Amino acid sequence: MILPIVAYGDKVLKIVCEDIDANYPQLKELIKNMWDTMYNANGVGLAAPQVGLDIRLFVVDSRAMFDEGEESKGIKKVFINATMLEETGEDWAFEEGCLSIPSVREDVVRKSKIKIEFYDEQFNLHVEEYDGLNARVIQHEYDHIEGILFTDHIKPLKKKLLHKILSDISRGFTNAKYKMRFPNKK
Questions:
Q1: d(Cα 121, Cα 57) in Å, to the nearest integer?
Q2: Per-residue pLDDT band at 164 (split at 50, 70, 90)
Q3: In whole angstroms, what is the distance from residue 147 CA to residue 145 CA?
Q4: Catalytic residue among 71, 128, 141, 146
Q5: 111: closest CA among 143, 79, 80?
Q6: What is the DSSP letter of 153?
Q7: What is the C-alpha to C-alpha distance for residues 151 and 149, in angstroms, rounded to an integer?
Q8: Which residue in 41, 73, 120, 121 could disulfide with 178, CB within 3.0 to 4.6 Å?
Q9: Which of 153, 155, 182 is nearest to 169 (CA)?
Q10: Is the CB of residue 34 less than 8 Å from the CB of residue 46?
Q11: Known catalytic residue: 141?
Q12: Average pLDDT of 147-171?
């Protein structure tokens, strides 16, 4: 089932999310719905707050970010109760967007390598390292479960210039081609 994606301005996007356990109600169905929702919106990642849930869960499929023939460099994974252990390497800027903030894209500076601890959908514990685009997508989705949006990383002047667009999105004025839920629709 395709879920509505929560738009910029909703309180759930600014909450530090809670851990869950293997008995979380209908977890397998939720994960399936998150995949369906992400693919329907042409995304490469989706976090639970983006579908209105304040839990530490996100999905990533970065394969589409790689050139044809290089898709195997991407990952498709479920991250539950993730904890970022390290962010190292060079700082690098890359243009990011977000399904909760349609039509806004800005350069965000992040570290090039990460080490992250998480549970998969069978609640097996993993500690893994990623770099490049995979690290970037994971960092973006991890930020969501920490109550941080990519717009929180951009320079204050740039964010000020985006104020009207962000305000419009929160009120339902957007051209997103997927189902959304707006906090202040008028």
A1: 10
A2: very high
A3: 6
A4: 141
A5: 143
A6: G
A7: 5
A8: 41
A9: 182
A10: yes
A11: yes
A12: 95
